[in-house]
Amino acid sequence: IQSGTATFVSGGEIVDPVTTAPHELQGSSIRGGVKRTVGPGDVIEAPVGLPHQFLLAPGTQITYLVVKIVKQ
Predict the structure, then answer these.
(1) How many Å apart are CA 54 and CA 7, to the nearest integer?
(2) Nearest to residue 10, comparing CAs of 58, 40, 61, 47?
(3) Per-10-residue mean pLDDT for the chain, 72 residues long?
(4) What global pTM score does this model have?
């Protein structure tokens, strides 16, 4: 995370999953995930297949870098 804060939700089950691209599954939310507050300097590793999402408070933003490795 480069700037800002958010709640990071991981684990659980994707609600209303839809395949949006190869190796990409998105949904409307996550049910039963673990919530953590994240901020500048935090590094998050999300293993393949782990549902995850950021929740931001209204009017806030975060800046972060994503490195996604896809097995060919």
Answers:
(1) 6
(2) 47
(3) 98 96 91 97 94 96 92 74
(4) 0.89
